[in-house]
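To illustrate this point, we now present one chain and its tokenised fold:
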Amino acid sequence: MSVREWQGSGHAGLSGCVSAQPLRARAQAAVEAELGRQGVRTTVMAENGMRLDAGGHDSRGPVAIAVSLAVPAVLSPAALVLLAAG
């Protein structure tokens, strides 16, 4: 499935997903279908230890970005209140 087909299938993106596991399974199936279309063995990724299933680092990036945006957003109004009171 191409990106355009996926976008047109009614998916809102990752923000609506509770788990990325169904997305990974669909991506794996799409990769295997594309490999088959190109005449490559569909098992070539597994044979070489490649998989689309990422480990525990899946959430570290988004959480770090959210924290880096939330901390200044919370501290900025607090600083204004302290400056106005003093």
Summary: The helical segments are 3-7, 21-37, 44-47, 60-85.
